């Protein structure tokens, strides 16, 4: 246990607290508050005394609403309550999955750059991480078909790059999963942050997909701990048993709030982030090699010095970023989150433009 | 994962739902609702938008309030914020501990009868369970001093027996922990349910104790997921890191409710359960070999046939109990919970008196 390093994201968080008026572009959650209708239902659930244990797998009402969401929004026709487990956030879902599936020495294909929890948790459970660049072409996977992977995992849209994987890429990954016997895990926590309508749930075509859906990012419910797993019956059964012996159930009142969240129109929030996505790209494209993000609320771009050096220079301008090395094997990228107020974002772009000239 | 059987407690729960007007004495949580002042603070935290991640270890305000509680109520003078981790309930605390501490083949001393999660989770992490009868005498431990235990664990007061361990027993366990290098884990989730003022926190004398404190049972917050771990700095650091890579943090608004819970006077509730404890004992002592419970809200007593047979006979009288075999190696005990309304309890005692004559 003493081997896992504390996350540099948390370090950025601490750093930001030490600066008087920081330009904090390190935060991995929306800057807007949880919408008031969700708060109202959360409040009502508390007042109605829904403070007892729920069923281990989650309240039937939420599972039913999620099944409907999967069928209509994600086009996953086989989605059904029995295939859904409600968990205490995506991290909890990942822990259940990795704990149940990964054995010592298992090779796990992780699309890179990756959510930093994937390799950290996989290694903790004895897995060996095999990275695959997110820019891969379907034919690149041919040479991998003779290997044996326990699982394939990616976040789509991606944290940290904002990349939305193409249908062709996703189909190639599903093919690879099928031919190597790997579990295909599609982490779709950022699915609503899809600015060019490119997002596609591979679960709609490949029934063995394990689809992860989170409430934290979309509705700013990170502290309320809620996510769901959609998978084959036998996987859900095993994970439910493990949940019974670990966190028991997701927080009761949060589950009721989740049902309301699904009814909430987030399009104005998404539109705001789309404009911020464009603003970041337009502000930086002449200063850094940068690609326009397709989704999530991050931009991941190359800097002219090492990430750690760049981060230190940024701090001198009160700007907080996250070093890229925690998301991939490269050491000259940084992650910027545009989930913030316009004022902060504008100050950040100005600081980044100045920083590019210092190198 | 497929090896862990679903808990018979859950089966009792399902069974109770199938009977029209069940006498349900199987439930492991208070029958009273979460007190209104706690609900109010929970509601206010939601309305104030406290829906984001908290620090991994918990909000400082709760840790500070817990440190004060440990110092004044439990007489643990060394209690300090840095030694406290806030978790998503006791089950989550156990999972963090066992995952971090237990390696394949480690021998773990478990006071028996035990909370069924202990052996189930210990075995999952590769531990070997060595049971020790709760009626042990201090001198019985002498012969164990040459063994090597990874940990010693008990719930005090006990689920399922309601036994409150004596100071002498606790001191003997602390001595054994010290001489064998074992971690001593004192699960005190039922501490307030202490009817004869016998409860004693061994952490007040043995500084290496890992003390677990839960909010679920005392305030009927089982679904809100909140507990704390008090332990040495290095243990807390390791567990905090593991929490960061699993559930991330305890639910944010629940943590605020926890502070209010600590200020809540529960004495009227405890007095009610004390009367129920007496009533159960007085009603059954001429029919079954039974001991008066010292704490928690359970009675654990021997029945004249196997527990499974007895449970089936009880169901015919609409009475739901939990079989003893899940808590110990014996197969002729049952667990009764008196955390219920007087009417239900009276019906239950009548049914049990009748059942004793059928054997």
TrEMBL record, chains A, B:
Please give the PANTHER family that the UniProt record associates with this protein.
ASPARTATE AMINOTRANSFERASE
Q: What is a biological process (GO) this protein takes part in?
A: amino acid metabolic process
UniProt keyword terms in alphabetical order: Aminotransferase, Pyridoxal phosphate, Transferase
Specify the enzyme's EC class, one word.
Answer: transferase
EC number from the UniProt entry: 2.6.1.-
| InterPro entries, alphabetized | Aminotransferase_I/II_large, AspAT/PAT-like, NHTrfase_class1_PyrdxlP-BS, PyrdxlP-dep_Trfase, PyrdxlP-dep_Trfase_major, PyrdxlP-dep_Trfase_small
Family to which the UniProt record says this protein belongs:
Belongs to the class-I pyridoxal-phosphate-dependent aminotransferase family.
Q: From the Swiss-Prot or TrEMBL record, what is one GO molecular function term?
A: pyridoxal phosphate binding
What is the species of this protein? Answer: Leptospira congkakensis
Provide the cofactor list for this protein. pyridoxal 5'-phosphate
User: What Pfam families does this protein map onto?
Assistant: Aminotran_1_2
Q: Where in the numbering of this chain does the Aminotransferase class I/classII large domain appear?
A: 22-351
Q: Which CDD domains match?
A: AAT_like
Write the protein's name.
Answer: Aminotransferase
